[in-house]
Specification:
single chain; 401 residues; alpha/beta; Alkaline Phosphatase, subunit A; 8-stranded mixed beta sheet; globular
């Protein structure tokens, strides 16, 4: 019996409610001058007070030493083994913007980027150009027909776009063109087997045409593609956990990920306060809520330590409004660490807090990486977080006689 079969066999319906807040890229590393991480540097009175009444620890999204992408980091928190249930970034982004995917479509997540005169990458995110500007450029690129394959180009959020390839004989088994670093040339898309040679060829021809069309742009003068994928087929959270789940997320990719596991998508607004307000509006309608905070990850990737601190403080100011709803269980954690001094995702475990009236609190006085090292939960796999929340919500039957 695998873990999902086990959870399916013991999960039960109950009126109790679980709120899972995922502060994207929450974990950090200390600055040399202060010795404090972003979380430790932030003013967080509400988080600190809650930590003293909660069970805390550190969570490994995929495994020790493994740096996770956002999709596996979230899937693990939703109870799915990310090694067996990996979902491509492209499909998640396409589902997140509501693109009408057809069977056989291959979707890729795109970044508008900036290259220099020699073709080397200067900025993988084209200065995080506005969604409005991205939308305008997408219209210029949309609708190409290459070797019988129609190419759809749609805006997502800021520099992020979705590119969908529709035609006969396509496969997702191709490599990314995004080298994930600056100062180098974008990669060619290469086939990983015979069946994917057409897809690789069409993708490379699309990128070449896009480069030519965008050559007059100051910032967005090239595209990077990654996460080529097709529609997955995963059991839903309702099927496995008997939950009625909903997601509140500003960024399309996370809405797409929530759709894949069967969550309803609720309005989000633009700010953390907007998200919490929408949580309140729909609190009576669902028993599991995924609330996503993106700004911490974006700041970490940009190397902006202070901005990441500010986003954590902004969430702390909204925490009391979540607690006022009286959820039976509140989880606060991240999908991975994104230390600002690292400027990217890292393998470091993530602070984790689980609050309910059934807690065995430790002696923590604050919520931070350093304190969570001493927390009563210890080090746990992210796939254990939802079962723990379900247990605290009294949504699990006893296993065995």
């Amino acid at each position: 019996m695998n873990s999902l079969d086990l959870m399916r066999s013991i999960s039960i319906l109950s009126p109790s409610k679980i709120v899972m807040v995922v502060i994207d890229g929450l974990g950090g590393l200390p600055l040399s001058g202060t010795g404090k991480t972003e979380l430790e540097s932030a003013r967080r009175p509400s988080l600190n007070a809650l930590a003293g009444k909660s069970e805390c620890g550190l969570s490994y999204p995929v495994g020790r030493g493994i740096t996770p992408g956002s999709a596996p980091g979230h899937l693990a928190l939703f109870g799915y083994d990310p090694l067996n249930c990996n979902v491509g970034r492209g499909i998640l982004e396409a589902m997140g913007i509501g693109f009408d995917l057809a069977p056989g479509d291959i979707a890729a997540r795109g970044n508008f980027c900036t290259i220099d005169s020699s073709g080397r990458l200067i900025d993988r995110r084209a200065g995080r150009l506005s969604t409005e500007e991205s939308s305008r450029i997408c219209q210029v690129l949309d609708g190409m027909l290459i070797d019988g394959v129609r190419v759809f180009v749609r805006p997502s959020k800021e520099h992020r776009i979705v590119v969908v390839f529709r035609g006969e004989g396509l496969s997702e088994m191709v490599s990314d063109s995004d080298p994930q670093q600056v100062g180098v040339l974008p990669k060619s898309v290469s086939a990983q087997n015979k069946e994917s040679e057409k897809t690789a060829s069409v993708a490379d021809k699309f990128l070449a045409r896009a480069k030519e069309i965008l050559s007059g742009q100051k910032l967005a003068n090239m595209i990077l593609l990654r996460g080529f994928s097709k529609l997955p087929c995963l059991p839903t959270m309702n099927d496995i956990f008997q939950l009625t789940p909903a997601a509140i997320a500003v960024y399309p990719m996370y809405r797409g990920l929530a759709k894949v596991v069967g969550m309803d998508i609720l309005p989000a607004g633009m700010t953390i306060a907007d998200e919490v307000m929408n949580l309140s509006r729909h609190f009576a309608d669902y028993d599991f809520f995924f609330l996503h905070v993106k700004g911490t990850d974006s700041a970490g990737e940009d190397g902006d330590f202070e901005r990441k601190v500010t986003v954590i403080e902004e969430f702390d100011q909204s925490l009391d409004d979540i607690l006022a709803l009286n959820p039976e269980v509140l989880v606060v954690t991240g999908d991975h660490s994104t230390p600002a001094i690292f400027k990217g995702h890292s393998w470091h475990p993530v602070p984790l807090l689980i609050y309910s009236k059934w807690c065995r609190p430790g002696d923590l006085v604050d919520f931070s990486e350093r304190s969570c090292l001493r927390g009563s939960l210890g080090h746990v796999d992210a796939t254990d977080v939802l079962p723990l929340a379900m247990a605290h919500a009294q949504k699990l039957n006893k296993f065995g006689a």
